[in-house]
Amino acid sequence: MTTTGPDPHVDVRTLPDALRLRSEKQPDETAYVFLRNGEEPHESLTYRELHEAARLRAAEFAAAGLSGGNAVLLYPSGLEFVRTLLGCMYGRVAGAPAQVPRRRDEVLRLRRIADDAGTSTVLTTAEVVRELRERFGDLPALAGLTLLATDATAHDPAVPDGDYGTPTPPAPADTALLQYTSGSTGDPKGVVVSHANFLANVVETDELWPSEPHGTVVNWLPLFHDMGMLFGVVLPLWAGVPSYLMAPDAFIRRPARWLEAIARFRGTHAAAPSFAYELCARAAAEGRTGGVGDLSSWRVAANGAEPVRWGTIRSFTDAFAPYGFDSRAMCPGYGLAENTLKATGTRQDRAPGVLWLSAEALRDGVAEPVGESAEGSVPVVSSGGTVARTRVRIVDPVTRQDLAEGRVGEIWVSGPCVAGGYLGRPEASEHTFRARLAQDDGSGATHLRTGDLGFLYGGELHVTGRLKDVIIRKGRNHYPQDIELSVERAAPGLHPNCAAAFACDDGDRERLVVVVEADGRVLNSVGLEGLCRRVGDAVREAHRITPDDVLVVRRGMLPKTSSGKVQRRACKKRYEDGELRAMTAPAAGHAGGEE
Prior knowledge:
Layout (H helix, E strand, L loop, with lengths): L14 H11 L4 E7 L3 E7 H17 L6 E5 L4 H12 L3 E5 L5 H14 L3 E4 L1 H11 L9 E4 L25 E6 L9 E5 H14 L8 E3 L6 H14 L3 E3 L2 H6 L2 H9 L4 E4 L1 H12 L14 E5 L5 H11 L9 E6 L6 E4 L8 E5 H5 L13 E5 L9 E5 L13 E6 L11 H8 L14 E10 L2 E7 L4 E3 L2 E3 L1 H9 L10 E7 L4 E9 L1 H7 L1 H16 L1 E2 L2 E6 L13 H9 L16 E2 L1
Parallel strand pairs: 1-10, 3-4, 3-5, 5-6, 9-10, 11-12, 12-13, 24-26
Antiparallel strand pairs: 1-2, 7-8, 13-14, 15-16, 17-18, 18-19, 19-20, 21-22, 23-24, 25-27
Helix pairs in contact: 1-2, 2-3, 6-7, 10-11, 14-16, 15-16
């Protein structure tokens, strides 16, 4: 594939091609900077240094017999992940990024990823190797895994500087990455992402949100996660702009660090899930963002969630307009690992769009605009449109028929960013990645079934929820994220993404269960029984259904993805298995049912 990327006269077909070009055209320009504690520059890489480091690692991987195989990438946020990711791509090693385990169950997930990828090789740092052996060395899950510290490999003095041989370059169809999904239930599935997928997605992303002129990326998202990797590593490399990276914990502990870095380094592009913008808005409301500085350089604040919340957009833009933040910089989008990442997005030269819809009609699967002032109206934020060859359509998940504009159905995606399938899962791959419409026109076109629900309006995608998570009562659809938002607003001090709503079948009927996290400040304010009562009242008033069970757990107990999204199905399984320890029983008198 010939692109119009870094140089229109050069055939750039893979990300390694782009790095080689950068190392020739901009050898001494800064490519990546890691911020210690999210504040001070600690380590940096130029394009030349990254190119040489990646070539060295590729040669080492080839010598170890890893070329053409798979390996788990187990790195904390930092530049060694960047060196190794590119080294794997240079050396034709399909990397499977994973989270560094902090708990015993995360070690089991690491082992499941390695087993699914068919490898015993784990590439990591010397510090991680030491911590794993000290904390989890007794676990059988680590037995048989070969932990290789890529940062501890000494340069061979017998090899002339920079003379690492010329590894066979990867082809566009070769596997670049195994992106493991969050694994909300069962074993994690590895999405097979090719070099062509990677390049197509980053080209589309740069077309939607151009990095030039004078672009700078600031990223706190974990680099093993698809959004963090694409925005923090791949996009800046493709566009030839510097990327400032910080550890996720630095942001979580003090969200203002992210904004301070954007102001200090004149960041133009940054991405995060909706909850991150909510944390920043709350920090501003509590007076914890006084030192943020000038945010007028920020051109693209990509906001990815299913769905994006209008209240969060409004509170964030209101809070940071005095700091120079332009509301048109807020760019809601939609993406998923199975499409490499981005599928749709709002262009940076317009304010985010929102439709105020009839809640009653939406429960029946119809988007009926009624206006913000109408009783019972709910906001649904636009996730923008597609660019280049990516296409989105809304399909009835049962009949596989196209649905008209304004009708809610499953989101299907097609185009060059759609990955090849799930590693070693032919049946699941056929169902998810090669879906066909009932009214097949004979073209043989296939589509990615996302499992997400939404509708098209004015040519733009609006996401309403997950197909498998919808709660159906008396023929009406209730979206769990709407119930969860009502729960978050039930008591002061509850945090974003603090609740999970789901239905459980007890053999006689479906029961609505709400699990909510709370800390000591909330409980001291309203009491355990009072919180249960407030949650039940809030859900009943907003949605005309009453939870059958409200379970209050301590903060940190809800299972979440690496990007902070609640894993409802994992929470449901833990609830059904009795693994969620309640801080209190549901308040007396809260029998479930509809009004």
